[in-house]
Amino acid sequence: MTMKTFAMLVLMLCSVMIMEIPAFAAEQKVTLMLGGKFCDSYTGEVEKALKKVSGVKAVDFKSMKGHAIVTADASVKPKDLVSAVNGVKGDGWDCKADLM
User: Fold this and answer.
1) 96-99 and 27-35 as β-strands: parallel, antiparallel, unpaired?
2) Pairing, β 89-90 against β 27-35
3) Average pLDDT in the 82-89 region?
């Protein structure tokens, strides 16, 4: 095998390996301050609403009392997260969110 043939094989192998590496989208963490009448009792409903937003990966209520820390794709607009929470309400209760 010549050096030129060997170099071409190495180049082809590297090209195949690069194509195998998945590209991950950047993530962001958005902190929402929660409020509303009895909202702290309905974090399950808030989490469901947030996870309906395409690109939301996780919702954390434990790290910061009265807040939701949302992990989402970089393409998610924080205002869409606020809108999702502001739509959570029931008979005698509601939730509101503000961006931190």
Assistant:
1) antiparallel
2) unpaired
3) 96
CATH 3.30.70.100 fits 24-99, yes or no: yes
State how far Cα 58 lies from the chain centre. Answer: 6
Q: Beta strand 93-94 with 89-90: parallel, antiparallel or unpaired? A: antiparallel
**DSSP 3-state of 34:** strand
Q: Is 99 exposed, middle or buried (0-12, 13-18, 19+ CB in 10 A)?
A: exposed
Residue 70 to residues 42, 47, 52, Cα–Cα distance (Å): 16, 9, 12
Q: What is the pTM of this model?
A: 0.74
Q: What is the mean pLDDT of residues 22-48?
A: 89
For the chain, the domains span: 24-99
